[in-house]
Design a protein that fits this description.
The complex is a heterotetramer of chains A (457), B (277), C (324) and D (372). With 457 residues, chain A is α/β, with parallel strands linked by helices. Helices cover 43% and strands 12% of the residues of chain A. In chain D, strand 1 and strand 2 form a beta hairpin. Classes of the chains: A alpha/beta (457), B mainly alpha (277), C mainly alpha (324), D alpha+beta (372). Chains in contact: A-B, A-C, B-C, B-D, C-D. Chain B: It is found in: Cell membrane.
Chain lengths: 457, 277, 324, 372
């Protein structure tokens, strides 16, 4: 034990001599943020823009590079460095918060950051994103929403608001859609022009596909930890429940509607019509033509189209409903937030946000990546997206869903991710690993309730 | 291994048995690597094919990999990191191992334990403080930032110390008597005699630096500056882009394989002769 | 009658006695201070770079971790750190996740032992049977996976294990989603990690075997032992220091080795079935942003590993035969 | 600076109170020596007696815990080895494995930054002296043991050092080669007359090569003297039994005056000391070398014993007796095991040692000193 003692001594020694280098160097209270002046024409500013869309090779990165180049051309005094979040997750969007956090810890956060709506509470209250209303004025923010010609869809305008103030400008946006393989539908003797509209129909169609073609039936990408909870929320809302009470003070994801959703999904797995897949495997499998249907974010449509090529035909339908109820989709996607600590950079950051949410930028993003344009009017603009919308039959159900759209509710408090992960893990455990839905959700809800601010009381 | 020379019963049968078991195991070890290259050489529409031989051969995946990422730039960056990091680790470890092997001094044991102790420190616990420190030093987004924190390799120190302990002390004494300072003894006597071990260790360190991706991902956030990160860019929620992914993976492994094939004997020998015991 | 006496012939002059007789000058040797420094300094100077690096990049952060483990803090500079004493430790030790992850880590370690111990010993012994070039070729092939970058290795295996398009399922005729089934995910991680490190372990065992004086085996054969008896009674016991080293390495590094694979392939899932100690630590620190809890976990693991390492080292010392 | 000639200039090594401790163990205990210029001093002793430690302190490889060291008139106690004008030959030769013979020999000169031509000439000269000229391009591993030994010697010679230190340089050679090399080194020393300190545990080397022997035991200097002094008048029981083969017979006895003459007595033993005196009985240890015992027909004065074994050494024979005494003489001795014999010795060949301290006892007559 002599070694142990020695090592312990060494550790103690070091402990005694080391200063605590982390933390406590507070940047001061951010209770009030003063209005930032306009940039002078010759004032050179460089800012950093962090977006998870840079994580992937291909269309996403190319599109964003194109947009930034255009921005720099328009604002020669501002230079933008784009970066992806730190980290290695298969889905860079899951790395955004931890990446921002370590950069905040190091004292040098990026200036503009693209963050998911699920992180809104944490972003505003813990990470202290700057209130744009204070920074550039409420009028300016609203003017941007109104746009030059085509305003934001009403349901989208307030997604980045917290207690009446706008912190983030909603940027990219998608809704859950039921994509299906028309060829497999035909082979299974189903009508490819009449996709299932309810979950019961999905199950039957999936069974037909499985039986007739040997391929997998349907996959719902809402039921794993990796999928986050946006479309699980949609499923629960469609079944008439909520995962968290409306005032966000109480978790309700173990209530009967949620249990019913999980049970329905579990049944599909148990009967073999829904394969046990990870998000990535399912997307790939569908793109390859080995899967009949998939409930997926419209952001991935590009991949499906590419996978389909001329081998099979992609069909798209609105999110299915539960018998006798209206389907209520929620939005996935992200808003742009400002974290600059320097006034000039704050102004430059706003300029970038304005540019990236302009009509022109949305035209590029929608055509190149497939995200929904938040300025929905653009699809009727002959100079804008009208042509694209016409060529793109998958857009219509997506736009239609906006009518019933409800926002993706972020979990409260500092431990929101643990709450969310705990909930989704329980769902995953029930659906794919065969645990009892009610028990699994209940125990997860009990554990997670303790993590709510104030212990969920 | 002289025992094998002893006239043996049924030695042909034994040998055959050895070949069978080793053959199967080798195959199991190499098959994934083969599959990697085979997939990378398939035509895009054949990527999902399971034929053992990729036919027709196609370089389309490589073309795509090069088009989407600056693969050559990545390979170059990774190479620079691997070489500098290996050389730096080698130097630091050599000096430290020399101190441990050539002198007896107070606190020696404690200092030695400090090196061993690094194996017990979870890397996940030191990562964030190191990141913050790098940021204060202004070394983020630099290759130096990737290299410097890795410069002290405990494995290197322990391995070289082991080699140096086997090194005849009288040689060190002789060099002192012959008029060398300890510094010049190190370079004129110790290093030449230790060359095979240094080369082997250097190669191992370079390989592991080449394969490292966690820390580079943290420091080099703004670019896919190392090839392992380039790999990640073909993996994602939309599914993996298997062709270019395998092509990039193949390219990422290629320099290491070539290095190993050329120097295989030296690496294995350096290990076998002394080193790890 | 002559008388006289026997007298002792004196021993050669010793300075202490001579000094007492005041014959010679014996100022005790005491070098000038700078000479002392010059004599003592070299090893410390040679160690300086390494130790500075160690302190700056490993031990100072570790010390910070110690400090941090008594605070509740989410890593955001603008949020104050709250001193909670041992609260983080209490939370950690009462969390069911910790126990589960310790258990999973033990499974990983046990699962790794065939790859770091059994197969390498078998391979090293078998390679002695075959002669000439084949020996080197087999060794090179087995070592090759070690050279594959973890990410690349993960990518290939993900491909091989794909539930519908993967080679493994098609060859075995199964329909298992290896990486997304709670029962098989851990197994897959172990096998892939084993595939990675088996070559290294073979190398270590080969080195150990080469270090055994062949006279022992020869002597045993002359004493009438059969080959298998030589292997069981002589070779393997003499190899025990090497084996102890491998066990130590497996115990200390298994969780660390699996980390990049878990991070790439399963992210600790499905439903946490591959979340071992290190991944848990990672999740606390980098996903839950619970710096205090993560630090407390780091400290506990560090202390735990010290104990394990000390025990294993003792065991290894007891086992090892000093072959000098 | 040394001249270019091969002959070293005056070098005298003085040790005063040299002590070295390793923790609680004192390896070298307060040793004082004065090695004259041109002397060949052998440090002799069993393994673990501290002789190598002493040599390493002279070399400067080990700092002394106490005491001082002079080379000529310079206090070198704290000088690092490279600044002491001494060369050393190591037991393992310590040849640099990666350097050729020529580079090995030239190494000390290279460290002193001598001109290349000079090094070459000097190496050639030394190689010629040692018969290494044909081997200059070889690596150490391509040499035989004897050749390596000579290269090591050459590396020491090339410097023209003030003194040579040799640490058991012959111990790695086989018996035949050892005898030859021994003679070569002795011859070399005769020619160069360079001060040499030579460590060995081999008494034959010590006896044949030394001008003086310093006999060490447990870190202390037991005896210092010429080989014949040490052999003929061992200063202690240790010295007496360490040198000689088989070693000196030492038995407990009592010195007592019988009829005005001193005799040593023990059971079955009575030997005259050849001193006329009358002193009280005194317990002593009596020593006599095997070759100084003669077999006499039984009945006379001497040591009575029964032969247990006879060893044939070729030219000589050794008879071992039941009392632990052995006799050595020309072959054949003419005894067989089981035979009862009486052994006698001349008084001048008897050595007396104090029973307790083991130091040699000299007879001192009351008035006139009398050699024993």
């Amino acid at each position: 034990m002599k070694r142990t003692l020695l090592a312990a001594c060494a550790a103690t020694l070091l402990l005694a001599t080391s200063a605590c280098g982390l933390g406590t160097e507070s940047t001061g209270s951010q209770a009030s943020v003063s209005r930032v002046p306009e940039l002078k024409p010759d004032q050179k500013v460089s800012i950093v823009f962090e977006s998870y869309n840079f994580g992937q090779a291909g269309a996403w990165t190319d599109t964003f590079n194109e947009l930034i180049a255009a921005f720099e051309k328009e604002h020669p005094n501002i230079s933008v460095t784009a970066q992806k979040p730190q980290g290695n997750s298969a889905n860079p969007a899951t790395d955004t918060i931890s990446s921002l956090q370590s950069q905040l810890t190091a004292g040098s956060p990026p200036d503009v950051v693209q963050l998911g709506f699920s992180d809104l509470d944490f972003t505003v209250n813990q990470l202290k994103a700057l209130p744009l209303d204070d920074l550039v004025g409420k009028d300016t923010v609203q003017a941007n929403f109104d746009g030059e010609e085509y305003p934001y869809a009403d349901s989208a305008r307030t997604l980045g608001d917290w207690k009446g103030k706008t912190y983030g400008v909603p940027f990219v946006f998608s809704t859950p859609m039921l994509y299906y393989n028309k060829q497999l539908f035909t082979q299974a003797g189903l009508d490819p022009e009449h996709p299932p509209a309810t979950w019961a129909e999905v199950r039957d169609a999936a069974k037909a596909i499985k039986d007739m073609t040997g391929k997998d039936g349907a996959y719902v990408d809402c039921l794993t930890k990796a999928a986050k909870d946006w479309c699980f929320q949609a499923l629960v809302r469609s079944a008439g429940g909520r995962v968290i009470s409306e005032d966000r003070s109480k978790l309700t994801f173990a209530d009967p509607p949620s249990v019913e959703v999980v049970r329905t999904m579990q049944d599909m797995v148990r009967t073999g019509v829904m394969p046990n897949r990870t998000q990535m495997q399912a997307v790939e499998s569908f793109a390859r033509g080995d899967l009949g249907m998939i409930l997926e974010s419209s952001a991935i449509q590009g991949t499906f189209l590419k996978g389909a090529g001329d081998k099979w035909e992609l069909g798209a339908a609105a999110m299915p409903s539960f018998e006798g109820r209206q389907a209520i989709p929620t939005n996935s996607g992200a808003a742009l937030f400002v974290f600059s600590q320097d006034q000039a950079k704050q102004r430059a950051a706003w300029e970038l946000i304005e540019f990236l949410t302009s009509e022109r930028a949305y035209t590029t993003i929608a055509t190149k990546i497939g995200y929904l344009p938040l300025r929905t009017g653009l699809v009727n603009d002959p100079d804008g997206l009208e042509k694209w919308a016409d060529e793109n039959p998958y857009l219509e159900p997506n736009l239609k869903q906006l009518e019933h759209l409800e926002p993706w509710v972020s979990m409260p408090g500092a431990s929101y991710l643990q709450i969310r992960d705990g909930m989704m893990q329980a769902v995953e455990n029930a659906v794919y690993q065969g645990a009892n839905p009610a028990d699994s959700l209940r125990s997860a809800q009990e554990e997670a309730s303790a993590l709510l601010p104030g212990g969920g009381k | 291994m002289t025992t094998d020379e002893v006239a043996g019963e049924s030695s042909r049968g034994r040998r055959l048995g050895g070949h069978v078991v080793l053959g199967v195991l080798s195959l199991a070890c190499v098959f994934p690597i083969y599959w990697l290259y085979a997939t990378s050489l398939r035509a895009p529409q054949d990527v999902y094919s399971l034929s053992v031989l990729p036919w027709p051969l196609s370089t389309a995946s490589y073309t795509e990999a090069f088009a989407k990422n600056d693969v050559l730039g990545m390979l170059f960056n990774t190479g620079v990191i691997a070489v500098l990091s290996a050389l730096g680790q080698l130097l630091v470890a050599l000096l430290a191992a020399y101190a441990f092997a050539a002198w007896r001094f107070p606190l020696q044991r404690l200092l030695y334990l400090m090196f061993v102790g690094t194996w017990l420190v979870p890397f996940q616990a030191t990562m964030l403080p190191n990141y913050v420190l790098l940021s204060r030093l202004g070394l983020l987004e630099t290759l130096a930032g990737v290299i410097i924190p890795t410069l002290c390799s405990a494995l290197g120190v322990l391995l070289l110390r082991e080699h140096l302990n086997g090194f005849p002390k009288e040689l060190l004494d002789a060099a002192r008597m012959d008029g060398r300072s300890s510094w010049s003894t190190l370079w004129t006597v110790v290093v030449p005699a230790l060359r095979p071990a240094l080369a082997a260790l250097g190669i191992l360190l370079a390989i592991s630096a080449w394969n490292e991706y966690f820390w580079p991902a943290m420091v080099l956030q703004r670019s896919n500056a190392v090839v392992q990160l380039g790999l990640r860019s073909f993996m994602g929620t939309e599914g993996n882009d298997w062709g270019p992914l395998m092509a990039t993976a193949g390219l990422a492994c290629l320099p290491v394989f070539v290095l190993y094939l050329v120097l295989q004997r030296h690496i294995v020998n350096a290990f076998v002769r002394s080193g790890l015991k | 009658m002559v008388s006289g006496a026997f007298v002792e012939v004196p021993a050669p002059v010793r300075s202490r006695e001579a000094c007492a007789a005041g014959m010679t000058d014996t100022v005790p040797a005491s070098p000038a201070p700078w000479q002392r420094v010059r004599r003592i300094a070299p090893p410390y100077l040679y160690l300086l770079p390494a130790v500075v690096l160690l302190i700056v990049w490993t031990y100072q952060p570790l010390a910070q971790t110690f400090v941090l483990s008594t605070y509740s803090w989410n890593l955001v500079p603008s949020t104050p750190m709250v001193d909670v004493g041992l609260g983080n430790y209490e939370r950690l030790l009462s969390s069911p996740e910790l126990g589960r992850s310790v258990w999973r880590t033990v499974i990983v370690i046990l699962g790794m032992l065939p790859f770091t111990l059994v197969i390498p010993v078998a391979v090293a012994l078998l390679t002695r049977r075959v002669r000439g070039r084949a020996q080197g070729v087999y060794r090179a092939l087995v070592f090759a996976p070690m050279l594959v970058a973890p990410v690349a290795g993960a990518a290939v295996w993900q491909w091989l294990l794909d539930p519908s398009a993967g080679a493994v399922n098609r060859v075995l005729g199964t329909d298992v989603n290896w990486l997304n089934t709670a029962g098989t995910a851990q197994l897959s991680i172990i096998v892939i990690t084993g595939w990675h490190v088996v070559g290294f372990a073979v190398l270590v065992v080969t080195a150990g075997l080469a270090g055994i004086n062949p006279d022992y085996a020869a002597a045993a054969q002359i004493d009438g032992a059969s080959r298998s008896q030589v292997t069981r009674w002589i070779t393997v016991p003499l190899l025990s220091p090497t084996l102890a080293f491998l066990v130590l390495m497996t115990v200390l590094l298994s969780a660390q080795w699996t980390f990049p694979l878990i991070d790439t392939l399963t992210q600790g899932g499905p439903v946490g079935s591959t979340t071992n100690l290190y991944y848990l630590l990672w999740e606390y620190g980098f996903r839950s942003h619970d710096a205090g809890l993560a630090a407390a976990a780091g400290v506990l693991f560090f202390l735990g590993f010290i104990v394990v390492a000390a025990l294993l080292t003792r065991l290894a010392e007891r086992l090892s035969h000093h072959d000098d | 600076m040394r001249g270019k000639g091969a002959v070293a200039v005056v070098s005298r090594i003085q040790l005063q109170g040299l002590t070295r401790r390793f923790g609680a163990v004192t390896a070298v205990d307060d040793i004082g020596l004065d090695v004259a210029d041109g002397e060949f001093l052998v440090l002799l002793g069993p393994s673990g007696c501290g002789k190598s430690t002493l040599l390493r302190m002279i070399a400067g490889l080990l700092p002394p815990s106490e005491g001082r060291l002079w080379l000529d008139d310079t206090d070198i106690t704290h000088l690092p080895p490279q600044r002491r004008d001494v060369a050393m030959v190591f037991q393992s030769y310590a040849l640099y494995p990666h350097l050729s013979v020529a580079r090995n020999i030239g190494f000390p000169l290279r460290t002193r930054k001598r001109p290349r031509a000079e090094i070459k000439a000097k190496v050639a000269e030394v190689a010629a002296t040692l018969g290494l000229t044909d081997l200059l391009d070889r690596k150490p591993r391509e040499l035989s043991g004897g050749q390596r030994q000579r290269v090591a010697l050459g590396r020491a010679l090339v410097r023209d050092p003030g003194a040579f230190l040799m640490d058991e340089p012959l111990s790695n050679l086989d018996a035949k080669l050892r005898a030859g090399t021994r003679a070569e080194i002795a011859e070399l020393h005769r020619r160069l007359r360079a001060t040499t300190v030579y460590v060995t545990h081999d008494q034959v080397e010590a006896m044949t090569m030394a001008t003086r022997i310093a006999l060490l035991n447990e870190g202390r200097l037991e005896q210092l003297g010429t080989p014949s002094e040490v052999y003929d008048a061992p200063a202690s029981v240790f010295a007496a039994t360490f040198l000689g083969s088989p070693s000196m017979n030492v038995v407990d006895a009592t010195v007592r005056a019988v009829d005005g003459a001193l005799v040593a007595e023990a059971e079955g033993l009575r030997l005259s000391l050849g001193i006329d005196a009358d002193i009280p009985d005194r317990p002593v240890r009596l020593g006599v070398r095997p070759e100084h015992l003669t077999l006499t027909s039984s009945g006379g004065q001497g040591i009575r014993a029964i032969v247990t074994a006879v060893e044939n050494l070729g030219s000589e024979e050794v008879a071992h007796c039941d009392t632990g005494v052995s006799v050595r003489g020309p072959r054949p001795l003419g005894v067989v095991p089981g035979e009862a014999v009486t052994l006698s010795a001349r008084p001048g060949h008897l050595h007396l040692f104090d029973h307790d301290s083991g130091r040699r006892l000299a007879w001192q007559a009351a008035s006139v000193p009398q050699p024993v």
